[in-house]
From TrEMBL:
Catalytic EC class: transferase
UniProt keyword list: Aminotransferase, Pyridoxal phosphate, Transferase
Note: In eukaryotes there are cytoplasmic, mitochondrial and chloroplastic isozymes.
Descriptive protein name: Aspartate aminotransferase
Documented EC number(s): 2.6.1.1
Residues covered by the Aminotransferase class I/classII large domain: 29-405
A Pfam family reported for this protein in Swiss-Prot or TrEMBL: Aminotran_1_2
Record's catalysed reaction(s): L-aspartate + 2-oxoglutarate = oxaloacetate + L-glutamate
One cellular component (GO) term of this entry: cytosol
UniProt keyword annotation of Transferase present: yes
SUPFAM superfamilies: PLP-dependent transferases
Domain of life from the UniProt record: Eukaryota
Cofactor: pyridoxal 5'-phosphate
Length: 411
């Protein structure tokens, strides 16, 4: 027998299995509501207008250095722009400059890599007894922390009956069971998979709780600007914590996959916020992160981050990006409403307001696993058994078909 015949049998993220089943399905009306990738109203991938424009410019520039290595920490200009975007820096006031001194940033292999570098760094140097992860969450949070050998605990997030964010459940659990230096994973906006976020008042209470109990907030920001269309609004939680809890240390994993449509280019950053505005401490944190990066992937890729940097450096291009963000977020809102309207028209049993009030790419529909199976088997509509539907898979053409399919399986 092989040395490897006793390997554990992992079920790799169910969304990839779902994609394979969808591809194998030959039904002409099949619909994919599985993966979290933006699709246009024809159901096709949509390179952002501004990205296409910049790609062309970069190609014409024919820069001989375009395939050189980045430094281990990544592209410094990109990192500053990325930091300014998520933490909301603009005017460069003395106060802002002081805040910047607290933040050590490195470039990562997109949001996944940022989550991983954060977990790796914290497991080595903070040594938390446990990490608190929302129930439910993006499944990779579990894998990433499991691989670091940190005990994973979940806090309630979704109230199934009310189809709402379970604020009371979350707070009570953390209040009773979380301990000093525990890491708490928070989705900066557009919680995946529920599409339900805390209100501003609730965020303030979460920040107070973290401060009082000495928890270490770990923000995962994968949808800034993509969720509401507004870059500041989608980063409100992060900016509130940074500005209102000066003594609290925290970190943030930042992805540019969705808001720039650069999924396969792997553009992201990890930012660690200390409580000291000290360039020495910042440098020391950065050097330690670089030590880990060097041993893992040497440095992040260059192509995608050059595109993002070029856009963020130029006010006009930034406006064009904002326009693209509006196009994507508006289309999602329109599709949410279209599905809702059609279910109302059909008189489908149950309440469906959550389809329109949830935000971001996903809707937690409330369909059961059995109903999701029926959707696939009978109607060729593919979504995860959890009932999460990726709204971007809806188009003006297929939304009526999908609504009829929902109607059929819930009756
Ligand atoms: N965090 C969350 C919550 C996500 O939904 C995603 C994307 N599915 C990511 C992180 C990271 O994705 P990527 O590695 O493509 O940036």
């Amino acid at each position: 027998p092989s040395l490897f015949s006793e390997l554990p049998r992992y079920q790799i993220d169910s969304v990839f299995a779902l994609i394979a089943d969808y591809i194998a399905d030959t039904h002409p009306e099949k619909v994919s509501l599985g993966p979290g990738v933006y699709r246009d109203d024809q159901g096709a991938p949509w390179p952002l207008n501004v990205v296409e424009k910049v790609e062309k410019q970069l190609f014409e520039k024919n820069d001989a250095g375009r395939h050189e290595y980045l430094t281990i920490a990544g592209d410094g200009t990109f990192l500053e722009l990325a930091r300014d975007l998520c933490f909301g820096f603009g005017e460069g006031t003395p106060e802002e400059e002081k805040l910047k001194l607290k933040i050590a940033s490195v470039q990562t292999i997109s949001g996944t890599g940022a989550n991983h570098m954060g977990a790796l760094f914290l497991s080595k140097y903070l040594k938390p007894a446990r990490v608190w992860i929302s129930d439910p969450t993006w499944m990779n949070h579990h894998t990433i922390w499991e691989l670091q050998g940190v005990e994973r605990r979940t806090y309630p997030y979704y109230h199934a009956e009310k189809r709402a964010f379970d604020f009371e459940g979350m707070m009570a659990t953390l209040e009773e069971q979380a301990e000093k230096n525990d890491v708490i994973l928070l989705h900066a906006c557009a919680h995946n998979p529920t599409g339900l976020d805390p209100t501003k008042e609730q965020w303030k209470a979460i920040a107070d709780l973290c401060e009082r109990k000495g928890l270490f907030p770990f923000f995962d920001s994968a949808y800034q600007g993509f969720a509401s269309g507004n870059l500041t609004e989608d980063s409100w939680s992060v900016q509130y914590f940074l500005r209102n809890k000066p003594n609290m240390e925290m970190c943030l994993a930042q992805s540019f996959s969705k808001n720039f449509g650069l999924y396969g280019q792997r553009v992201g950053a990890f930012h660690l916020v200390s409580n000291e505005p000290s360039s020495e401490l910042r440098e020391s944190i950065k050097v330690n992160l670089c030590h880990l990066i060097r041993g893992e992937y040497s440095m992040a890729p260059r192509g995608g981050s050059t595109i993002v940097k070029t856009v963020l450096l130029d006010e006009q291009l930034k406006k064009e990006w904002q326009n693209d963000l509006t196009i994507m977020s508006d289309r999602i809102k329109v599709m949410r409403k279209a599905l809702y309207d059609e279910l109302q028209r059909l008189g489908t049993p149950g309440t469906w307001e959550h389809l329109v009030t949830q935000i971001g790419m996903f809707s937690y529909t409330g369909l059961t696993a059995a109903q999701c199976h029926a959707l696939r088997g009978k109607h060729h509509v593919y979504m995860l058994d959890s009932g999460r539907a990726s709204i971007t898979g809806l188009t003006s053409e297929n939304v009526v078909y999908v609504a009829r399919a929902f109607d059929d399986v819930v009756r």
